[in-house]
Amino acid sequence: MSVARRLAAEVLVRVEQGGAFANLALDSALRSAGRIEARETALATALTYGVLRWQIELDRAIAAYSDHPPEKLETPVRVALRLGAFELLHHPTVPARAAVYEAVECAKELRAARAAGLVNAVLRKLAETRVPPPPPPRDTDPIGHLAALAAHPRWMVERWAKWLGIDEAGKLCAANQEQAPAVVRVNRRRATLAEAQAALGIESRPGRFAPDALILGPGSPPAPDMDAHGRGIVQAQDEAAQLVSVYAAPGEGSAVLDACAAPGGKACHLAEIVGPGGSVLAVDLHERKARMIEEAAARLGHGNVRTLAADATLPIPGAGSFPLVLLDAPCSGLGTVRRHPEVKLRRTPADVDRLAVLQAKLLASLASYVAPGGLLVYAVCTLTPEECDEQVALFLVEHPGFALDAPPPGFPRECLDERGHLRTLPHRTGTDGFFAARLRRG
24 Cβ partners below 8 Å, 6+ apart? Predict the structure, then answer.
């Protein structure tokens, strides 16, 4: 079994059994593997993300040729079958015999040798056509048709089609199936854009919307492995996430409360914007995550960041009032599917409802820390109405002392909706999907 396939299989098992994020599990696996060829690294990455992106389609294909539904199989068997099915359906240059052989070896490597015959039989049948089962007819079941073709959960496609229309929902799903580029934010307190590009020493180009964004070329190493990252010149952060701080637009010397702040990208960006004369109190529920923010701020040279482990739904110890409060709320994360494809496989409608309740509690709690005339910025990296527009509308009804505030001057119009909310969509802006609203206290 090739090194790349073994690594991908181990990562996929961790993602499914342990709930790991694929990017973190893959980075860890590649580091543990030591020195391996670049092509093996590239293949392990392509297999890991490819299987997760197309898992719904792969399971449909497996179910068509197996007496046992994929969900009834043990995780190692499912992983071996999915890896083989992915290569058969999406890597046409890989000989069918090789794809089947490697999948059988994968089952053995994952200590599921007793299922080697099943893996071999199912994939040999799929290898005869190398095409998935046909989707439901578009004319009688447009939602099911799109869900099958784009390998997205039906409930997700249904909501997006209701919001955007079936054609644009299809464009969003297609964008989610593309690999998101690696993006970093330049720490302007340490380097200009050009200086950061030189320090990176790899292919990069300025972002389209965020003034400090650099989009890295294909195959770039993870940001933590870059010397420029270690020296505090850049921070890994998607362009849409960077726009949240630009949209919040704190003044030089301002005091900011950043709630639910881990891993600290926005807290550090805000600290850079307000400058040494300003301050950022970064609050997160978990002590470990608060330390992560502290470490990031130290690496970037932002001594004006103070961290605190606290529950933002309860009174925050020692917190007063602030001209700017940012709530980067816990959410379903459906705007990051192209970067974290496992999200679409894990989330359910019940999760959206549960998170919407938590978001409402956080907004109600944090409103009390906004100074008169100050600003509360609510941000999420998701696309569901319950967590975006409906959440803001509910807050304004229950807090008549707040009103919608206009976006800051010069903010990119392509990233605003008709109400002035920040709204990015992968198929429109080429970024992760984010939503943010400015709520001004009277």
Answer: none
SS3 at position 377: strand
Give the other-Cβ count within 10 Å of 177's Cβ: 17
Quick one: pLDDT at residue 18? 84
Instruction: Note whether 248 and 324 are within 8 A (CB).
Output: yes
Peptide bond into 409 cis (omega under 30): no
What is the distance between the alpha carbons of residues 67 and 79, in angstroms, rounded to a whole number?
Answer: 17
Give the number of other Cβ atoms within 10 Å of residue 394's Cβ: 16
Which tens digits make up the pLDDT trace of 168-178? 999 999 999 99
- What is the residue whose two structure tokens read 């060829």? 37
368-391: pLDDT as tens digits: 999 999 999 999 999 999 999 999
Rounded Cα distance between 58 and 198, Å, is 42
Give the other-Cβ count within 10 Å of 372's Cβ: 9
CB neighbour class for 74 (10 Å; exposed up to 12, middle 13-18, buried from 19)? middle
Of 424, 212, 233, 229, nearest in space to 339 by CA: 424
Residue indicated by tokens 């816990």: 330
**Cβ contacts of residue 249 below 8 Å, gap of 6+?**
273, 408, 411
What whole-number distance in Å separates Cα of residue 109 and Cα of residue 89?
Answer: 23
Instruction: Answer for the pair 188, 210: CB distance below 8 angstroms, yes or no.
Output: no
- Interatomic CA distance for residues 336 and 164, integer angstroms: 18
Those residues whose C-beta lies under 8 Å from the C-beta of residue 371, and which sit 6 or more positions away, are 321, 322, 323, 441
pLDDT tens, position by position, 395-415: 999 999 999 999 999 999 999
* Residues with catalytic roles: 381
* pLDDT exceeds 80 at position 221: no
| pTM (global) more than 0.85 | yes
Structural domains of the chain, with CATH = 3-127 (1.10.940.10), 142-176 (no CATH), 183-235 (3.30.70), 239-441 (3.40.50.150)
Q: What is the CA radius of gyration of the chain?
A: 23
Question: Tokens at residue 149, please?
Answer: 């073709």
Which pair of tokens denotes residue 248? 């919040």
**What integer best gives the mean pLDDT of the chain?**
95
DSSP state of 88: H
Distance, in Å, from the CA atom of 369 to the CA atom of 312, rounded to the nearest integer, reads 11
State the pairing for strand pair 213-216/305-309: unpaired
Q: How many helices (H) and strands (E) does the chain have?
A: 19, 12
CA distance 283 to 310: 6
Provide the CA 52 distance to its chain's centre, in angstroms: 13
